[in-house]
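Check out one such.
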Amino acid sequence: MNAKKFLLPFVFLLLPVSATAQTENLKVVVNSNQDGAVNPDDALTLREAIEIVNGTLPLDRLSSAEQSLVSSNVGTTLIAFNLPSADTTIRLVEVLPPLARPGLIVDGTTQPEYDPEGSATAEIAIPIPVVAIAPAANREVFRGLTVVADGVTIRGLSLYGFTSRHRATATLPPADIFIDNPQSAAIKGAANGQKLMENREGEPSPISNSPKNVVIENNWLGILPDQSVPQQTSAFGVFVFNSLGTTIQRNRIANHDGSGIITSVQAENLQVTENIIVGNGIAGMPDAIRLEGRIDNTQVSANLICGNDGSGVFLFKPQGAAQINNNQIIYNGRRLRRAAVYLMGNDHQVIENQIGHQTGPGVVVASYPKSDRNLIQSNRYFDLDGLSIDLIAQQNTGVQEYQRGDGPNPLRNSPNRRLDTANSAINAPQFISREFFVLGNKTNLSGTADPGSQVTVYQVKENTETPYAPLSEPLTTIAADDEGKFSVTVDNLQPGDRVSAIATIPKYGTSEPAANAEIVSPVGDRVNLSSTTNFTSRNILQSRLRTIPQCTTAPAPPVVQVPPEEPQPPEPIRIQVPTNVHFALDKATISPESARVLDRIAEVLQANPPIVVELRGHTDPRASDAYNLDLSNRRAIAVRNYLLRQGIAPERMTIRALGESQPRVTGRNRLDYARNRRVEFIFQDARGIELFVQEEDLQLE
């Protein structure tokens, strides 16, 4: 695409602003779902409305019918909507002008059919939008709305489909909503390589002129108003490229190629609260919320973060500290096995979250760059593949360690220990015994920790084979004395219960968990915990088989009293389902024949919500191991994304790339190669399902 075409919308920033737009608050009603050139006619488009409030479209250029849709407004400038009820989707042909009027409100809740009391989800009530904004057919529009002014509010809209093809000189980040300084290269379309932080002579600094107090609320980003997945997914949801005090609250953010919320240059005082962030990272940067750049005083609170491809919250070399509290972070790591929360940097707080159903650890803290004083307290963990808290050691610098943790650290007491691991190598507590007696309803627990640390004792409820089962429930907190000893009496523990503990020293941070200890009776059988010292995934898999993945549910219908019926035994499942689809040589695209097979699989999954599936990508052997691993991953992603568009929830699918390592057949002819180029379906909770290998979509060379 011609680069000049990208720059056209931004010339409005350089035009003179009319006196009316500068001094008077306006209400502008959009009554057209069309887009294109500005013309005096009977309908007012969103593009024209933005130009009017920006002061770049004088009212005398409008028709009398259009002028009747512009009026004075008390308090603030408002873009309202009264679109034809038959089609309330605005299809853009090119990027809209930036929202450059301070205090502007773009308000989809003004559409007459909007129901502020309605919600499609029971977990967090977010009304269903009526007005949608999306690219027109066969148009590449890389952004939905761009904010460059203070105090702008965007509410009650559905935005989806905003992306761009990757180019070698890509400089304009795509997103549903993009927030940045009006002078930055990302807004003005500067050449690739310009330093965005550079204060060029004669231009205001992008940092000093950041938009302030922007509010994004009650929107659906990446989702159509009918809750379906768009055929073209957006690159990112909200991209806070450069802003101060942005609030992102009560939005549904789903189905993005990259992160649902991402920051870059500056996002200080960012507030992310009460959002539903589901199924993001489906083709690239996999984490639901990715925080980097200047993020001091960022708050991530009370969100449902579920079914995303990587971490729920991922901090990458941030400047400043974030608080992550009271969130439900579940079923993440669907494509990449990462920690639910991944921290780099200092002084972060992860407090009172529910963290579980994760294909990696709970919270991982990097050691490089040096990360200290991170407080991780009062969280409830369950169903993890790794430690509840994992502090990376300096010598473990591989990709897997930095994404999934490196397991329990040894006791560290060397003079240079503070450089050994994240959080200055604070040691995990150690119980004096692997067993403690319960007398009556009281149990005395004792052990050692770093002197002066606050030791929080947790009950461990999962009966896994690992001695580091998740920290389920905080019981009590006590202080270790000057020699590092602690002792506490806990009520109401029963024989067979397990406990663990973490230690916190504010100037260092929070430790990894202690190895579990067993509560036993003074007499009777005891469980030997010492024989199980290695992590295992068997019990984790069994736990997932017992749990039906589900991120959101519909609100409960009104209660109607009906006489109870006699319970009927469940009907046994009697279905047949294919176990694989095939691919052409060196391809990761779905053929029409494979699409028909996937439609049959989607029908089975739609009819049987308890079934979850792992998608295993495979290749034939005729390339390098690294190339085949990447190709098998792309094939698994293509299958998952096809099923997403058929309405299969992201939390029900995980991805595993196996390359050429597990061929279905070992021959070396064209037919054998075609049989091995496949994605295999591993169904879990597949009671009564008759699986069969189908070859109707084989693609010979």
Summary: The two ends are 34 Å apart (CA to CA). The longest strand covers residues 261-268. DSSP finds ten helices and 46 strands in the chain. Residues 1-21, 190-204, 525-545 have pLDDT under 50 and may be disordered.
